[in-house]
Amino acid sequence: MKALILGVTGQDGSYMADLLLSKGYEVHGLIRKSATGNTINIAHIVSDKDVFNKQFFLHQGDLADPTSLYRIIADVRPSEIYNEADQDHVRWSYDMVGYSSDITAAAVARILEIIRQVDDSIRYLQPCTSNMFGKVDSETQNESTPFNPQSPYAVAKTFAYYMTRYYRQAYGIHATNVILFNHESPRRPADYVTRKISQSVARISVGKQGELVLGDTSAKIDWGFSGDYVEAEWLALQQDEADDYVIATGKAHSVQEFVDEAFAVVGLDPKKYVKSSKEFFRVTPTSTLTGDSSKARKILGFSPKVNFSKLVKMMVEADLEREKQ
C-alpha cells in the first residue's frame, strides 16, 4: 500500500505517518516551504536511515498551489490520501478569513478534482471538526446533527465536508469524512490551549515562568488523543464503502479540569499561578460539544485507548522533559 499524507509535519499527519509505517505502507508526505524548518514531529522518522528515502518520502508542495498538488498525486499515484493539512486554528481564522477559506475549504475541492482526473480509484480521507456543529440544542452530536458553524474555520470545514460528500455521490470516489472532536498530544503546537497549559505548567514547575493566563476556563470540551483518532481515520478508509463518522470520547471536561490535572502532575496549586483574560475569549463561542461516536464504535471498532487524565499527564511529562533538556 502507498499513502500520501498532506500536512505530514503536523500533529495528526505525523501520527498518521507513524501508524502507516508500522503497517508496512510506503508513505509519502507533502511539506510546504514554511514548514521545512519545523519538522520536529517527524524528526524520529527522518533520522532513521532504514526508513527515510526507502519507505518514507517527502515532497515539496502547498495546498494553495494546484500545480504542485497535481504533480505529486500524479507522480506518486497513492492508493490512499489523508488530508491532514489546513489552517486549523479557530482564533487565527477570524483574522485570516481568506487564507483559512482557501486552505481549509477550496483546497479540498482542488484535491478531489485532481483525484477525479488522475485516478478515481484513490481513496480520500477528509478530517472535519466538531466546530461545524457550533451552537446546538442537543446534549450530544452525531452524524445526523445539523451544522451551525460559528467561526470562519468551522464554515470552511463545513464546505470541505460537503465537497467530499459531493465527489463521493457524483463521481463514486471513495471519499470519507471523519468529524473529529478535539484531540491533543505532546505534538500539539504551543498556541493551542491544551499545549499552552502543559508547556506553562512545565515551565512554572522548573522556575522559568511565573503565571499562566487563559480565557474562559469554564468551557467544556470533549478531548481525545490524536494517536487514537488517526487510527480511526485509517479504519474508516479501509471500509468497502465510503461514509461519514463522528470520532469522539463522549466525555466533556472543562478547561479548568485540564488545568487542575496538569498542575497535579507537578504537585502545584493552580490557584497561585492561573489568571483569566478577556483577550483569550472566543469572538463567537460554541455550545458544549460532546460527540456520540456510536456509529464509529460499531462499524470501525473505534475505542479510545488514552483517557483524559492519561492524556494530560502525557502532555505535561513530555513538556517537562523538553524543559529539562
Q: What's the structural domain tally? A: 2
Q: In CATH, what is the class of the largest domain?
A: Alpha Beta
Task: Provide the CATH architecture of the largest domain.
Answer: 3-Layer(aba) Sandwich
CATH homologous superfamily assignment of the largest domain = NAD(P)-binding Rossmann-like Domain
- How many separate helices? 11
Largest sheet: 7 strands, parallel
What portion of residues belong to β-strands? 15-25%
What structural class do you assign from the helix and strand content? alpha/beta
Kindly state the mean pLDDT as a whole number? 94
Low-confidence stretches: none
- Rounded to the nearest angstrom, the radius of gyration is 19 Å
Strand arrangement in the largest pleated sheet: 3-2-1-4-5-6-11
Fraction in helix: 40-55%
Distance between the termini: 38 Å
Provide the CATH topology of the largest domain: Rossmann fold
Order of helices and strands: EHEHEHEHHEHEEHEEEHEEHEHH
- Approximate shape: globular
What's the total count of β strands?
13
Give a quick precis of the structure.
This protein is an alpha/beta fold.
